[in-house]
């Protein structure tokens, strides 16, 4: 139909359908991104009307910013623990809640609920729990572990971040795993049972390989959220005590808006973007290879 | 064919980008349209003020109403900076979106950053009535860019009921002028059955307020203090052997020793301070006069509170041992980019209204509990903490607060101080971290 018409009419047709979306995409994603890249080459402080190009100086500053790499290392540690724990817990919950328990939809809804709270609110709620509720209980019952606030110790404050992230996202990932689990064909599991496979064998040889697409999605989501976390970090620990739990997004933000070093902050954001993009692409690429057909 | 197809897409996207970039750079063209819209809605002039002193938001809204009644052609809208946000960050976002407020309330150190975008206010009448040094830090190349809104001060706030009981009689604040006499007071309070003090571990309090005393206490002469800062930047200061630094940290050690939260020094929150002090569970809290509304809601001392200096040595005569740190902390600037001349005039009128009209002065001093930075305003401060600071200033016992430190100073130095307070570092490490901060700081 379109092949015989001229270039212009084809372009018009395409513009009619893709134009609005393309425009929105370019306007809110591509242009700001390119402009952001431009800003990494300037010494802009975020407000002044003048800025001058400084070449690659900001990127040099990124590599010399020890705090950035420290918080990046901490973020890696955070991502490692959250990805593992979120997915283990989510899978376990999904497994238990597809067995036909009484009230299982109620439990599913309950575990999903933390996702509906905004990160800031959630952070403040948990801050109250860690600072007051647990300390009160710890002192009353003489539990040494809880008698002082977890948020005032660098190591424990890190674990509060992990605990809250797991609590927040496990329910969400659970929903994806539930969909994956119910999608595993019952007939092949039945056939395996007839062949004498026990529960463990069925799980490791049938269910998990068939659920690889769910794992890809869940691990991708938890990876990306782990790297980009900011709201809970801000509301729960504010990066404290003494900057020991400042994750990388927070550091980038502080660099740009608190230290008034917009160029370096933007360059750090770009470096972070590249690292996260590479890691998540690699994850998806390699786990795609593990997919099997039923 | 395929080649042509690719080319087409390339041209298409290029056109789109061009259109978009044209949109973003047309700020100058839309100025008049935008201004006209803002400026003449409903026949009156509409102006806005970005308020970064969230504790006076309701008072400011009331003042805006009163101002509107006195000037029916002008309506003023107060926009709050979200809680915990910095005014610089909010204002720069608003500028980036092309929608800045007519007036912005900034911290002193931020004003210089905005100088290309705000009005020169040197010609205003109130310049002549401002108190000494109030305009120094916002005057750039001989032009003053900002209106000084409030003087704020800080030090040890004492609850008179508690300390009276501790010393057995009426407490005289002038007896506390050395680290030893302060420690003695702490001991007396503990002996009377109360806890001596609470140290609130927020990074801004420890970094921007407490530690800044180490700079300001170097000398009475601000030029020498500035020279000290320059030496810090150049890495030429050995803090560990600095007398003022060591004296201040000796006092800090004493504070840590008598701190009610000693077991878990970093767990405290700001909200805990006014409650403990107001209820009389502790005698002393290191904080400033802005905390009055919170203290008064727990008040058990019949509104009798006052300030003690933070001693930095055991020699009563040393500079800093009898002085309270105070300075103009909040400034109002007027936008010149997107505001129409009418709006700018209306904004100037509002500033004049605060300084010269009885209603405006009443708002400033009695409603908002602000210590004014103008000589012509003779109303006495409405709250005991403001009164105490006014008293120190009038006796010449005030030390300039460091209000133009680098923007990330409080966060970084505050973190180092928290580490020290939690005994995760020692004084040598603290000195080193702070020296390092200064040698790496931007500008």
UniProtKB/TrEMBL annotation, chain A:
Natural source organism: Paenibacillus durus ATCC 35681
GO cellular component: plasma membrane
UniProt KW Glycoprotein keyword: no
Recorded topology in the membrane: Multi-pass membrane protein
One Pfam family in the UniProt entry: BPD_transp_1
Annotated ABC transmembrane type-1 domain residues: 72-283
PROSITE patterns, per the entry: ABC_TM1
Signal peptide: none
The protein, known as: ABC transporter permease
GO annotation, biological process: transmembrane transport
Presence of keyword Cell membrane: yes
SUPFAM superfamilies on file: MetI-like (SSF161098)
Transmembrane segment boundaries: 15-38, 78-97, 109-137, 157-179, 210-230, 269-286
Family note: Belongs to the binding-protein-dependent transport system permease family.
Alphabetical UniProt keywords: Cell membrane, Membrane, Transmembrane, Transmembrane helix, Transport
């Amino acid at each position: 139909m379109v092949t015989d018409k001229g270039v212009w009419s084809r372009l018009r047709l395409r513009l009619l359908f893709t134009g609005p979306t393309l425009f929105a995409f370019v306007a809110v994603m591509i242009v700001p991104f390119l402009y952001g890249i431009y800003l990494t080459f300037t010494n802009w402080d975020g407000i002044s009307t003048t800025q001058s190009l400084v070449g690659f100086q900001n990127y040099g500053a990124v590599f010399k910013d020890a705090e950035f790499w420290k918080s990046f290392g901490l973020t890696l540690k955070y991502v490692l623990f959250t990805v593992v724990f979120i997915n283990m817990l989510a899978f376990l919950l999904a497994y238990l809640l597809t067995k036909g328990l009484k009230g299982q939809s109620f439990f599913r809804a309950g575990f999903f609920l933390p996702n509906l709270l905004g990160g800031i609110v959630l952070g403040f709620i948990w801050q109250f729990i860690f600072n007051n509720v647990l300390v009160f209980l710890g002192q009353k019952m003489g539990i040494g572990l809880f008698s002082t606030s977890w948020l005032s110790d660098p190591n424990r404050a890190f674990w509060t971040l992990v605990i809250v992230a797991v609590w927040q996202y496990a329910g969400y990932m659970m929903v994806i795993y539930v969909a994956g689990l119910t999608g595993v064909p019952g007939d092949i599991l039945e056939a395996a049972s007839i062949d004498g496979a026990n529960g463990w064998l069925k799980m490791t040889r049938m269910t998990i390989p068939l659920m690889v697409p769910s794992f890809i999605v869940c691990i991708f989501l938890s990876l990306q959220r782990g790297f980009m976390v900011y709201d809970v970090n801000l509301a729960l620990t504010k990066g404290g005590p003494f900057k020991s739990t400042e994750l990388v997004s927070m550091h980038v933000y502080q660099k740009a808006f608190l230290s008034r070093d917009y160029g370096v902050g933007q360059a750090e954001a770009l470096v972070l973007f590249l690292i996260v993009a590479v890691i998540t692409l690699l994850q998806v690429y390699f786990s795609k290879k593990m997919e099997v057909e039923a | 064919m395929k080649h042509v197809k690719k080319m087409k897409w390339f041209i298409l996207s290029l056109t789109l980008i061009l259109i978009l970039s044209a949109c973003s750079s047309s700020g100058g063209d839309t100025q008049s349209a935008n201004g006209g819209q803002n400026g003449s809605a409903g026949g009156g002039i509409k102006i806005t003020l970005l308020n970064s002193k969230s504790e006076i938001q309701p008072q400011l809204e009331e003042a805006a109403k009163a101002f509107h009644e006195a000037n029916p052609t002008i309506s003023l809208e107060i926009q709050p900076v979200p809680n915990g946000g910095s005014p610089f960050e909010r204002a720069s976002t608003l500028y980036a979106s092309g929608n800045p407020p007519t007036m912005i309330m900034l911290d002193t150190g931020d004003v210089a950053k905005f100088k290309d975008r705000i009005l020169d206010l040197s010609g205003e009448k109130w310049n002549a009535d401002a108190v000494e040094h109030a305009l120094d830090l916002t005057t750039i190349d001989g032009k003053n860019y900002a209106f000084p809104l409030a003087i704020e001060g800080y030090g040890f706030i004492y609850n008179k009921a508690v300390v009276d009981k501790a010393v057995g009689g009426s407490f005289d604040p002038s007896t506390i002028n050395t680290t030893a006499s302060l420690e003695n007071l702490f001991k007396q309070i503990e002996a009377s059955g109360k806890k001596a003090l609470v140290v609130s571990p927020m990074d801004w309090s420890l970094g921007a307020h407490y530690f800044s005393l180490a700079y300001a206490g170097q000398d009475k002469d601000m030029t020498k203090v500035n020279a000290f800062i320059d030496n810090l930047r150049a890495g030429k200061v050995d803090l560990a052997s600095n007398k003022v630094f060591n004296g201040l940290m000796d006092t800090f050690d004493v504070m840590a020793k008598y701190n009610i939260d000693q077991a878990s020094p970093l767990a405290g929150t700001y909200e805990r301070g006014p409650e403990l002090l107001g209820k009389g569970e502790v005698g002393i809290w290191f904080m400033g006069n802005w905390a009055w509304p919170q203290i008064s809601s727990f008040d058990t001392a019949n509104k009798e509170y006052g300030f003690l200096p933070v001693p930095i040595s055991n020699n009563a005569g040393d500079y800093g041992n009898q002085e309270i740190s105070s300075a103009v902390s909040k400034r109002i600037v007027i936008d010149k980019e997107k505001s129409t001349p009418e709006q700018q005039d209306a904004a100037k009128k509002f500033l004049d209204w605060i300084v010269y009209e009885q209603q405006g002065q009443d708002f400033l001093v009695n409603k908002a509990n602000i210590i004014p930075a103008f000589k012509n305003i003779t109303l006495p401060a409405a709250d005991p903490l403001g009164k105490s600071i006014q008293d120190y200033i009038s006796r010449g016992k005030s030390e300039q607060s460091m209000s133009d430190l680098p923007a990330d100073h409080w966060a970084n130095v505050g973190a180092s101080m928290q580490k020290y307070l939690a005994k995760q570092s020692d004084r040598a490490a603290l000195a080193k971290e702070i020296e390092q901060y200064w040698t790496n700081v931007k500008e």
